[in-house]
Specification:
The chain has 13 helices and eight strands. With 369 residues, the protein is of the alpha/beta class. It has an eight-stranded mixed β-sheet, with helices on both faces. Helix 2 packs across helix 4 (138-149), helix 5 (168-182) runs parallel beside helix 8 (251-268) and helix 10 crosses helix 12 (324-334). Mean pLDDT is 80; it is low at 1-17, 64-70 and 208-217.
């Protein structure tokens, strides 16, 4: 009880915290199992950067000035000192949304709050319990914080160590497509641990009309926004990340919620990416970790059988999207054994682009596409 009173007094009696250098936001609802462990990591980071900047914590709350239960002291040796914090409304998540996707509306609220407070930079820390949080040590999180605070970069994105078959939607669609379109090799364009400078606050908070009103929402494609504004982008090594649980999530739902917003983003920024030729590496900080132990072998036969069934049953639908030469190539692939099956990268790239074009031309209902 005394600790909560200390928190309230710190908010009322500390006018110097009204303008933080760094706002660290945790978009997890109060009561979430991820909230307090993430706060503890933030406090450890504060000890490493406290000499350089004033840090403030941003926590979602249903009512203004709500005090989170059992918020630990920043410094156990100084019980009178606590990490200053502010609240912001956490927008509701649309029913059926994949739980580990970034909430675009929450990002807008956080950016608007950081701008109103006059912060130099803002960190957003993902709270999905499916991720392996043990790799996010204070030292690694400091890597995330430093580039924007020092003024060297405007967007800091995470770079995770994963197994070869983890995050395949990102590795086979999201990353190569955004790299090709916008010219920056940001390997996790939807990373949930990010840092942005004040230059991105207006652009991110101004996208309200373009996302939450649409059925599938608009994910925060921060690398796209930064590239369009010719801002400086880097990525930092944050260690090993275990994939989020896919229990109860259909692949078709995941593709719809990931690819459709990316295709919409392509439409909005066509004037920019049509001028891009080639791509380049972005600066990367931190030492990479060794990949985790290999997972169990994948049942390739089951996937090949599913592909054959799709090629047979969806041929007429695919003909509305794919050109005849691609349909012929897919038919040939469907006749191969599991040991022989291999789709060339160039063929896969053409298929992804054809689907993006079909999405733009509305050749079939976008949700079905």
């Amino acid at each position: 009880m005394a600790e909560l009173e200390t928190l309230q007094e710190s908010k009322q009696e500390s006018p110097e915290i009204a303008r933080p250098d760094l706002l660290m936001a945790i978009p997890a609802p109060q009561g979430s199992d991820a909230l307090l462990p993430t706060i503890a990591r933030v406090q450890a980071v504060c000890k490493l950067v406290a000499a350089a900047c004033q840090v403030m914590l941003a926590l979602p709350a249903e009512t203004a000035q709500e005090v989170p239960a059992l918020l630990p002291n920043t410094d156990p040796n100084n019980p009178a000192y606590t990490l200053p914090f502010v609240n912001y409304p956490l927008p509701a998540v649309a029913p059926g949304t994949i739980p580990w996707l970034p909430n675009a509306a929450a990002y807008r609220s956080i950016a608007a709050l950081a701008g109103n407070l006059g912060a130099r930079a803002c960190t957003v820390l993902g709270t999905d319990l499916g991720f392996n949080r043990t790799s996010l040590t204070p030292e690694k999180l400091t890597l995330l914080v430093d580039p924007a605070l020092e003024g060297s970069f405007d967007l800091v994105m995470p770079l995770y160590t994963t197994q070869a078959l983890d995050d395949l939607v990102n590795k086979s669609i999201l990353y190569p497509l955004t790299r090709t379109l916008y010219g920056h090799r940001v390997q996790n364009p939807l990373g949930t641990e990010i840092q942005i400078s004040s230059k991105l606050f207006p652009a991110l908070s101004a996208n309200a009309a373009r996302d939450s009103t649409r059925l599938l929402g608009r994910l925060p494609w921060l690398a796209t926004i930064a590239a369009n504004q010719n801002l400086k982008i880097c990525q930092v090594q944050l260690g090993t990340r275990r994939p989020s649980s896919a229990d109860g999530i259909e692949l078709s739902d995941a593709l719809a919620q990931l690819a459709s917003p990316l295709f919409l983003d392509m439409e909005d920024n066509a004037a920019f990416w049509q001028r891009i030729r080639g791509s380049h590496e972005v600066p990367t900080f931190g030492a990479p970790e060794a990949p985790p132990d290999a997972a169990e072998p994948v049942d390739v036969q089951r996937m090949v059988d599913a592909f054959r069934l799709g090629e047979h049953n969806l041929r007429e639908v695919w003909s509305l999207i794919l050109p005849p030469v691609t349909l012929l190539e897919l038919r040939k692939l469907s006749r191969l054994t599991a040991a022989q099956f291999h789709m060339e990268d160039a063929r896969w790239a053409r298929i992804v682009c054809d689907f993006a074009l079909a999405h733009r031309l509305r050749k079939i209902h976008r949700a079905h596409l």
